[in-house]
């Protein structure tokens, strides 16, 4: 009979979350490498190259792939004959492992979990509690899956109670474009069908834990309806032309996963959850002989693709002398390399700024002719000036855009994914611009930051206002001063082209 010791289990959970912070699953990275090889959209190809370069850098530097180090999710399959040598409950042991992982001094991870979500929303400081799903199974073993799920992709989860006669494929193909690009494609779609509403959602999430194997399925052919759906959805979702980071291209998903179970005759629950470019999960078994052994991937297993700033096709911008006229001259899809001093701010900072302006109070920072970067960085370790610092989803700041552009003197913004109609109208009105950085390239972006200091709202922690001094930070003009958005024009262009290009590689 297997006996699992408390110390071994806690150590395994800690090691697992540290491991997935910096190591992509190799199956995902290799699938992304194939997507890069066949990609024909220059913007999408550049974005994928940044993601792959960032991934290898994170593995080499043992630092987070993404600044959003996720909400800790743990799936446990506990053998019914298993014994525990422990004084803590299983839940408490998991949370202790998560606590240690996120506060590890050698690779501190960003704490993003807030208690009292409908009230004070106070940070728990250690990313606990984890979300734990436990199943009692036959035998005396312990199977564990640890996943770190970023807030951007979680925010795009969808669930519907369809009528039994409704088309699941039609609902998914109609719904995916409404998710925008905030889930940082190319990624994976997890689909749960049947059961009850909560069961469908759980199956969708659990399906994302399986290896990327769509091309194996293409080669052997489907064996059941769920596999037929995977192939049909893989083809049709990629046929939407959304592409990497929503810029338009051939690959929106590298795989589609489907789990189903019996349901009530009157119901057809369907859930869809995306996994982003920062796909992070690891599987292991414990047998009572010590902590889990997690194999360190070899750097040579990564696709040999390296992103470098292209000075022939990109324009260097001096943020310290930037003018509104220069901003107005930028064109949609133009690639820029930002240099100089840039401010940061995201949800909490924008809310506080708006409140202070409404009360006539003086802001701690002068935003005149400045650029703001929507980011909440990871704390630095060792000789870093800042930890991984990739962009957060820009649409969350849409409701503050008119205030920022109209009352503070701000002239441009940097984030990830698309902007909504309200923000685009304000950008057009003020002849501003929105620049997109690649979600899933946080460590690569951090290497462009030469110095960082808090200049406002220090009490907000990672949501404080920083001033970054950047060197050749890569961005793309996503919305120009006329209001043209590449997240609208790009997918439309590539959806039209894809009809003449095989979406599924043989």
3D architecture notes:
There is one protein chain. With 506 residues, the chain is of the alpha/beta class. It folds into three domains: 1-148 and 281-288 and 295-305, no CATH class; 151-277, no CATH class; 315-491, Fe-S hydro-lyase, tartrate dehydratase beta-type, catalytic domain (fumarase). It is 31% helix and 24% strand. It is built from 15 helices and 19 strands. The strands form five sheets. It has a five-stranded mixed barrel with strand order 14-15-16-17-19. Helix 1 crosses helix 4. It is globular and about 70 Å long. Residues 502-506 have low confidence and may be disordered.
Question: Which descriptors would you attach to this protein?
Answer:
single chain; 506 residues; alpha/beta; fumarase; 5-stranded mixed β-barrel; 4-stranded mixed β-sheet; 15 helices; 19 strands; globular; disordered C terminus
How would you sum up this structure in a few lines?
The chain is of the alpha/beta class and 506 residues long. 31% of the residues lie in helices and 24% in strands.
Oligomer: single chain
| Overall outline | globular
The poorly predicted ranges are: 502-506
CATH superfamily of the largest domain: Fe-S hydro-lyase, tartrate dehydratase beta-type, catalytic domain
The profile of the biggest β sheet is: 5 strands, mixed, barrel
Physical arrangement of strands within the biggest beta sheet: 14-15-16-17-19
Tally of helical runs: 15
Strands, count = 19
N→C terminal distance:
47 Å
Give the overall average pLDDT: 95
SS-based class? alpha/beta
Please give the CATH class of the largest domain: Alpha Beta
Share in β-strands: 15-25%
**Name given to the CATH architecture of the largest domain:** Alpha-Beta Barrel
Over all CA atoms, what is the radius of gyration?
23 Å
Report the CATH topology name of the largest domain.
fumarase
Count of discrete domains: 3
Helix proportion range: 25-40%
């Amino acid at each position: 009979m297997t006996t699992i010791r408390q110390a071994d289990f806690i150590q395994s959970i800690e090691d697992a979350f540290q491991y997935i912070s910096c190591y992509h699953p190799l199956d995902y990275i290799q699938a992304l490498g194939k997507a890069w090889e066949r990609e024909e959209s220059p913007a999408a190809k550049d974005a994928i190259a940044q993601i792959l370069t960032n991934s290898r850098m994170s593995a080499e530097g043992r630092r987070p792939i993404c600044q959003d180090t996720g909400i800790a999710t743990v799936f446990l399959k506990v053998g019914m004959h298993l014994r525990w040598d422990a004084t803590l409950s299983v839940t408490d042991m998991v949370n202790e492992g998560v606590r240690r992982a996120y506060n590890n001094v050698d690779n501190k991870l960003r704490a993003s979990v807030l208690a009292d979500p409908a009230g004070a929303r106070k940070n728990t400081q250690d990313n606990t509690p984890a979300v734990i799903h436990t199943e009692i199974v036959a035998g005396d073993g312990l199977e564990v899956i640890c996943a770190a799920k970023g807030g951007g992709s979680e925010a795009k989860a969808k669930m519907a109670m369809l009528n039994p006669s409704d088309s699941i494929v039609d609902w998914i193909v109609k719904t995916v474009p409404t998710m925008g690009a905030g889930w940082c494609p190319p990624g994976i779609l997890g689909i749960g069908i049947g059961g009850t509403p909560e069961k469908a959602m759980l199956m969708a999430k659990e399906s994302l834990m399986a290896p990327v194997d769509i091309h194996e399925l293409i080669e052997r052919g489907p064996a059941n309806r769920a596999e037929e759906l995977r192939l049909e959805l893989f083809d049709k979702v990629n046929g939407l032309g959304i592409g990497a980071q929503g810029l338009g291209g051939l690959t929106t998903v590298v795989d589609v996963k489907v789990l189903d179970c019996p349901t009530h005759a009157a119901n057809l629950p369907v859930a869809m959850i995306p996994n982003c470019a920062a796909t992070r999960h690891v599987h292991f078994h414990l047998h009572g002989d010590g902590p889990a052994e997690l194999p360190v991937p070899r750097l040579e297993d990564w696709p040999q693709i390296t992103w470098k700033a292209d000075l022939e096709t990109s324009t260097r911008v001096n943020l310290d002398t930037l003018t509104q006229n220069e901003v107005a001259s930028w064109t949609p899809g133009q690639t820029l390399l930002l240099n100089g001093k840039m401010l940061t701010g995201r949800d909490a900072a924008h809310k506080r700024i708006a409140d202070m302006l409404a009360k006539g109070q003086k802001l701690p920072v002068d935003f005149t002719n400045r650029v703001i970067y929507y980011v909440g960085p990871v704390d630095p370790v060792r000789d870093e000036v800042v930890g991984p610092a990739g962009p957060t989803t820009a649409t969350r700041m849409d409701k503050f855009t008119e205030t920022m552009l109209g009352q503070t003197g701000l002239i441009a913004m940097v984030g990830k994914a698309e902007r909504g109609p309200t923000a685009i109208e304000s950008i057009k009105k003020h002849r501003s611009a929105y620049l997109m950085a690649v979600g899933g390239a946080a460590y690569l972006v951090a290497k462009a930051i030469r110095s960082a200091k808090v200049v406002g709202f220090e009490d907000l922690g990672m949501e404080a206002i920083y001033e970054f001094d950047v060197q050749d930070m890569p961005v793309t003009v996503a919305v120009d001063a006329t209001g043209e958005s590449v997240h609208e024009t790009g997918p439309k262009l590539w959806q039209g082209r894809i009809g003449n290009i095989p979406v599924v590689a043989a």
